[in-house]
Amino acid sequence: MADDFELDTDDLQRRMERAIAALRTEFASLRTGRASGSMLEPVMVEAYGQMTPVNQLGTVNVPEPRMVTINVWDRGMVSKVEKAIRDSGLGINPQTNGTIIMLPIPELNEERRRELTKVAANYAEHARVAVRNLRRDGMDQIKKAKSNGLSEDDVKFWEGEVQEMTDRFIKQVDQTLESKQAEIMHV
Description:
Layout: H1 9-28, E1 44-47, E2 50-53, E3 58-64, E4 67-72, H2 78-87, E5 95-97, E6 100-104, H3 110-147, H4 152-185
Antiparallel strand pairs: 1-2, 3-4, 4-6, 5-6
Helix pairs in contact: 1-3, 1-4, 3-4
Keywords: Cytoplasm, Protein biosynthesis
Pfam family, one: RRF
Organism: Rubellimicrobium mesophilum DSM 19309
């Protein structure tokens, strides 16, 4: 009956890893004062009748530590890409030279760095909530199995497994946040 219950910990772990991956993607979009092609990932451009990521409209390069360039493939898209970057809230003023858009990355001031660390902490809290929700899903599966006759010892074992996995991923979120905040505050 319930003796053959086995929680799919691999699935739970995979889902928690996706929460960490999503956090890293969000962190990559935070500007730290250094140029990075990934900072343009959230920027979408109205192109060919649909919203398209910038990196699908041109080649994104980082030729210098404080410069990102986009070599737009379609000359007609240059102004749309430029407008999308201006409207994205990245705080970057694009400069156009033919089909190449140059994005000089300005130095971050202390106040902006502090704001970015708060944004990073907010992203990390969302990741923690996602991990805790997955923990709750696992615990619900265990409760359901308990009501179907799973022994008390097995319940304790599986609850311990889920809690240990949750603690490990929460710690990973905290470590990722710490390193990102240190990167942001580094002058």
